[in-house]
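To the team - flavin mononucleotide complex, inputs and output below.
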Amino acid sequence: MTTILQLNASLSPQGQSDQLANRLVAALLAKQPDAKLTVRDLAAQPLPHLDAAEVGAFFTPAESRSAEQQALVAVSDGLVAELAAADVLVLAVPMYNFGIPSTLKAYFDRVARAGVTFKYTETGPVGLLSGKKAYVLAARGGMYQGTAKDSQTAYLKDFLSFIGIDDVTFVYAEGLNMGDANRAAALAAAEQQIALLTA
Ligand SMILES: Cc1cc2nc3c(=O)[nH]c(=O)nc-3n(C[C@H](O)[C@H](O)[C@H](O)COP(=O)(O)O)c2cc1C
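Output:
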């Protein structure tokens, strides 16, 4: 049975990234009705910034962790288990101030765990979450795809690859704040791409 993990991050109740992710997931479920869907809304239930206490807990051997450290690691362990169980990852990613939402960064900070989701070898890092397919639904007010200003795409590819997820497909909805015509065309193109991807 396929397991789909959808991560939403929009601060808007009508977030376009969330809506495009919903569309993609609906199409995936239509093809695989027995697939299991988990939706994690990082905006509605934000994780705090990673701090020294939590990093310290990660690097403390399990048998030596205090009760507070065990509780901190348990949050990360739960997120890692949820991610590890997913066959398909659907990331709804608004662009905020030229980057990903800080809530998504806080999530990444919890699932990048040495010895758990990646390891370093003499030849470099090796991601341990292999065999997954990821989709990124990228919603942006402006237009950056293919330019040096699109730091999101390279960052997301690098991060996902670091933990072993190399099969990543991006769907862009750009120019959403550049007038009604641009917005409508961008959303129609994104929806068409989703339809092709799930045909
Ligand atoms: C706080 C904030 C920062 C934003 N920064 C950018 C930006 O740097 N570049 C851009 O193209 N659009 C920016 N936008 C516009 C959003 O990317 C756009 O509204 C997009 O639709 C957000 O995704 P959503 O509809 O899923 O919430 C920003 C919007 C907000 C609310």
